[in-house]
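Quick review question:
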């Protein structure tokens, strides 16, 4: 499993790369890995997806205010 730092860094990178489509990208990755039977990969991407949600916030990207 990835470290906390790696999970947060991965979520941030996915957000930078995919913007508002980051959650959809994570969902696609989870689906592909689930079909392949890669339970560890699914767990990692689910953890990344949770962090994408937290970084995005309910009203868009999180601010530092």
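Suggested answer, residue by residue:
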């Amino acid at each position: 499993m990835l470290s906390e730092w790696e999970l947060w860094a991965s979520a941030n990178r996915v957000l930078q790369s995919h913007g508002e489509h980051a959650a959809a990208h994570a969902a696609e990755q989870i689906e592909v890995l689930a079909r392949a039977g890669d339970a560890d990969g699914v767990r990692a991407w689910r953890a990344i997806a949770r962090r994408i949600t937290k970084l995005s916030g309910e009203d868009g990207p999180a601010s530092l205010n």
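Why it works: Residues 39-56 form the longest helix (18 residues). The chain has a mean pLDDT of 91.
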